[in-house]
Amino acid sequence: MFRHRPTDRIERKPGRRTSARAFLVLAIPLMAAGCSVKGMAMNSLANALSGGGSNVYLTDNDPILVGEALPFSLKLMETILQETPEHEGLLVSAASGFVMYGTAWVLRPARAMESTDLWAARAERARAKALFLRARDYAGRALEVRHPEILPELMRNPEVIAQRFSEEDIPAMYWLAAAQGSALTSDLNDMDLLTDFTVVPVLLRRALELDEEWNRGALHELMMAMPTTHGISIEEKERHSARAIELNEGSSISPLVSLAESVCVAQQDRNRFVQLLNEALELDVDDYPDTRLANVLAQDHARWLLSRIDELFLMNSENLLDPSDPTEARTLWPIHF
């Protein structure tokens, strides 16, 4: 009978233990690498979503197609943010996406249906408000990536705390202001939103101090939507409009439409209202591919405003609207796509 020598048993056991140890030595880094690879993949996807991929939307000439596609992109962003919750670029992109979608595809249609189906319009306004508040949360989180826990301080003392922001914070500041203003526009009876609105002009003025040319005049366009009750005069709105047009070099007609809606209606200047909107409608949107979608939407809004001209302007031209009237806040915020 074949007998194993003691040395045979001694030699095999270390071999098995060595193999097991070798497996563990290899497996533990591989498992860690798997987590790392997943993290890198999520960050890469987040970078792609927050980068230039939005151009495929902004250059489109079909708002319906874009409006139907946007919800999927927004939910994809939210899915990735669950894995990369402090990705500043993606947080800003999510904020901008929800403001854009809420403005162009929810709030504007709601305003259009108010004269035919008031209850449906109110439901859509409530939905728009929820979208804007979601955008506000994402923009706030983006600010807190660089400035942890700054939002409560900002709400308590906006004039002082806003001075901490730098040029790198402008995108998050812009979308926080846009989301807050749009939320109030969708529900003028929300006293909490009205109270919190005080931070909006502070953010915009600080951003203008840092870089008034940012995004081809986007900050100036947003300032035009500020109600006169919050420290901006009609004359200042005119100056912001002129500067926005100068900076965008005619590539965006939003300043013309905003001026007609926010200034001409308040002053009851019907002739100028028609002139500005007709000028906006004369633009060939294909002349500026990068702003094609925004201009298509602005022209749609211009046509709607012209269709309501008899509602917006009183028969007696002496009865000017009071610029401090709360209805002024119903003006849509000119979101810069």
Number of strands: 0
Q: What is the number of domains?
A: 1
Give the SSE order as H and E letters.
HHHHHHHHHHHHHHHH
Q: What would CATH call the homologous superfamily?
A: TRAP transporter T-component
Radius of gyration: 27 Å
What is the name of the CATH architecture?
A: Alpha Horseshoe
Number of helices: 16
What does the largest sheet look like? none
Amount of helix: over 70%
Structural class: mainly alpha
CATH class: Mainly Alpha
Average predicted local confidence, pLDDT: 84
Q: What is the overall silhouette?
A: globular
| DSSP strand content | under 5%
N/C terminus separation: 88 Å
Q: What name does the CATH topology carry?
A: Serine Threonine Protein Phosphatase 5, Tetratricopeptide repeat
Low-confidence blocks of residues? 1-14, 20-32, 316-329
